[in-house]
Design goal:
The relative contact order is 0.10. By secondary structure, this protein is mostly helical. α4 (about 100-120) crosses α7 (about 180-195). It is built from 8 helices and no strands.
Length: about 210
């Protein structure tokens, strides 16, 4: 009788796990499609502004605008990799509470913080949602969930990624990548994990 009860509990737990996993997959797919939709809308907006104001001014109004720059992707490969990261890192439990509205404002905040650096000409201007991707990756890597081995592997891989970013950023050869915005995403990811309760209430609703 006890064995039967244990088997039933295990099956229920397994069914709950599968249901939860399915919900998280649906959530990630939905967010990814929404980000794709915003990227396509931004591309059309960019084309419209270029047609009206010319390439130089039109590009600046969209590519240096914190509301839109995070959704501009000039290459299919760039868009694909960012969408893949959005899908993968909105799946973990610690990131499932982020909907498209929150991701939009996080992307805006990251771009807004980076904007003065860009306008001063200290680095390349930033396009794409990679800053937000690094925000989500940071939350996953620095969370305390999972086994010790998982945490060690996450820290190691993430550390190597950041080291690579730093080396490429310090390289005198311009690779047209705004590495600084990735570090802003990392910084905000850490803030959202460890200092969430100390943030203003409006920021808590976003992060």
């Amino acid at each position: 009788m006890v064995k039967l009860i244990l088997k039933i509990k295990q099956r229920i737990a397994s069914a709950d796990f599968k249901l939860e996993t399915l919900k998280r997959i649906k959530h990630s797919v939905k967010i990814t499609i929404q980000v794709l939709g915003l990227s396509l809308i931004t591309f059309v907006l960019l084309a419209f502004f270029i047609a009206i104001f010319g390439e130089s001014l039109g590009s600046m109004l969209v590519c240096k605008n914190p509301f839109t720059s995070g959704f501009v992707h000039f290459e299919i490969e760039h868009l694909f990799y960012n969408l893949l990261l959005i899908f993968l890192f909105t799946f973990p439990k610690q990131n499932t509470h982020y909907d498209i509205q929150k991701l939009f404002w996080i992307t805006f905040i990251i771009s807004f913080i980076y904007l003065p650096i860009c306008l001063l000409g200290l680095t390349h201007y930033s396009i794409g949602i990679s800053g937000t991707c690094y925000f989500l990756i940071t939350r996953y890597a620095f969370s305390n969930s999972g086994s010790s081995i998982k945490q060690i592997l996450s820290f190691s891989l993430f550390g190597l990624t950041l080291l690579g970013e730093y080396i490429r950023m310090k390289n005198t050869t311009n690779d047209d990548v705004a590495h600084g915005i990735h570090f802003i995403g990392v910084f905000l990811g850490v803030i959202s994990l460890y200092f969430h309760d100390k943030l203003p209430k409006i920021s808590q609703k976003i992060f």
